[in-house]
Structures are given as structure tokens and as C-alpha cells.
Write a structure and sequence with these properties.
Helices cover 47% and strands 0% of the residues. It is mostly helical. It has a domain of 52 residues. The chain is flat.
Amino acid sequence: MAAKKKSGGRKYGKAANKRVGSAMRRRKKGTLKSGRSGRKVTSRKQAIAIGLSEAREKGAKVPRKRAAKKGARKSAARKGGSKTSRRK
């Protein structure tokens, strides 16, 4: 027999769903801004991430952010933290 999948509760609460929906609407409207630079967000994935982040701040049921993998952290620290290297 196949292994039975463990049934847990909902990962995300209703409030989180509302926040993400709101962020998506703001993205379509063109009013969703990124936190650090204040630039307009056009990416769907970025809009979802912003919505989940807002939901976390408000205390909604949202899983914790996943930590970066060890190898990626070490190499980023070694290179100086930037993702892209610029040549002069």
C-alpha cells in the first residue's frame, strides 16, 4: 500500500489570504511599492512575498520564513554579500 499522507491543518489562515489578495490588487493597480528602495513592484512572486510579510507583521497564521541554505550563506559571506559581481 502507498504511504498515507499526514493531514495537518491549514498552513495559511484567512487573514493571510486577504493580505496576499490585497497585495496582488495593489500590484495590478501599480501602487505596490517595495520596502527598501520604494520602487514599483511588477513581479507576481514579489507581491505574494510582500503580502505574506504584511500578514506576519499583523500576527496572521503564516509559516516562518525558510532560512537560506548553509552553502549559499557561506559563499555569499565569502564573496562580500553581493549576488552579482561587477567588472570594471
